[in-house]
Automatic annotation (TrEMBL), chain A:
Keywords: Membrane, Transmembrane, Transmembrane helix. The chain crosses the membrane at residues 92-114, 126-145, 161-179, 184-200, 220-242. This is CbtA family protein. InterPro entries: CbtA_put (IPR012666). NCBIfam families: CbtA.
Automatic annotation (TrEMBL), chain B:
NCBIfam families: CbtB (TIGR02459). Keywords: Membrane, Transmembrane, Transmembrane helix. The chain crosses the membrane at residues 20-42. This is CbtB-domain containing protein. InterPro entries: CbtB_put. It comes from Aminobacter carboxidus.
Length: 259, 58
């Protein structure tokens, strides 16, 4: 199981680093926008599992009218609802943990797939692998299903998860056909695979009417896309760097096929 | 093709494929659990993460 162990080793280092970077970026770029959106949510936009808290009430535009009712209802809700981390340090800790664990998991996927293609030879090649990961996991699904804030209307969750998954698979397959099969018909098929999910179209809500202001949502879409781009580039670059330094067998040259 | 010995020298091509597939599937499983699990507790713990990664949520 030496190959499995080596892949896990590379993924652990690169995923840990990229996950820490992502957690830090999210803390400043995306989480404040989520908290802001929750103030609209708690102001009566849409039912949600997160209990109202002191932190969000303090900034809620409708806090004066809604807060007393929310506070009165909170103890009753808590009994029926599942556990959720308390706002503040605990909530941050679970988000950071999720980021780091998912960083390692995405790294496992990236490193395993790249090994099938011969391995990432250096950090520069890793950057291109990172771009591919970004295109597959953020850009393509994000075109049909832009990042959502709490309280935004959305289609059925199961349908969106299926569309998201199929889009990721089709985009990955399409990119692989273009990058690794030196054949015009297969490259055309690859482009078709990348385009197809968007012709089918993502499940959309019946109405896009939302309590969330459009500029807040736009800022969130930009923040999510850019933080994920940095995450993937760091992940790919570190994976390429680590693989090169720590493994006994160098990655074979790709003969100019990639990077 | 030099790919068989890319990560470790004396491993058969089949074993190499199996190990890489296993590593990739492990990653997919963890991403799926973090991003897609319908369990309330998982959703609540990873809530901000899911929104920030643009996973379908709620």
């Amino acid at each position: 199981m030496s190959i499995f162990r080596n892949v896990v080793f590379i993924a652990a280092i690169s995923g840990l680093l990229a996950g820490v970077v992502l957690a830090a970026l999210q803390t400043y770029a995306t989480v404040p926008l989520i908290l802001k959106a929750e103030t609209y949510e708690n102001a009566g936009g849409h039912e949600h599992v997160a209990a109202p808290t002191a932190g969000t009430e303090a900034t809620a535009p409708a806090a004066g009218t809604e807060a007393p009712a929310a506070q009165a209802a909170a103890p009753v809700e808590e009994e029926a609802e599942a556990w959720a981390p308390a706002d503040g340090a605990e909530r941050f800790a679970y988000s950071a943990l999720a980021n780091i664990v998912s960083g390692v998991a995405f790294a496992l996927i990236l490193v395993a797939v790249s090994e099938f293609a011969g391995g990432i030879a250096n950090w520069r090649q890793g950057v291109f692998w990172g771009f591919a990961g970004f295109a597959v996991f953020t850009l393509a699904p994000g075109l049909g299903l832009p990042p959502e804030l709490p309280a935004m209307p959305a289609a059925d969750l199961g349908a969106r998860q299926i569309w998201w998954t199929l889009t990721v698979v089709a985009t990955a397959a399409g990119l692989a056909l273009i990058a690794f099969k030196q054949s015009l018909p297969l490259a055309i098929l690859g482009v078709a695979l990348i385009v197809a999910p968007h012709i089918v179209g993502a499940p959309q809500p019946e109405s896009h009417e939302s309590p969330i202001p459009a500029d807040l949502h736009h800022s969130f879409v930009v923040a999510v896309t850019i933080t994920n781009l940095v995450f993937w580039v760091v992940l790919g670059a570190v994976a390429g760097f680590v693989r090169n330094r720590f493994m006994s067998e160098p990655a074979p040259s790709l003969n100019g096929r990639l990077a | 093709m030099n790919t068989v010995s890319a990560l470790g020298t004396d491993v058969s091509s089949q074993s190499r494929t199996m190990q890489l597939a296993l590593a990739g599937l492990l990653g997919l499983f963890v991403v799926g659990f973090l991003g897609f699990s319908h369990m309330e507790v998982v959703h609540n713990a990873a809530h901000d993460y899911r929104h920030s990664m643009a996973f379908p949520c709620h």
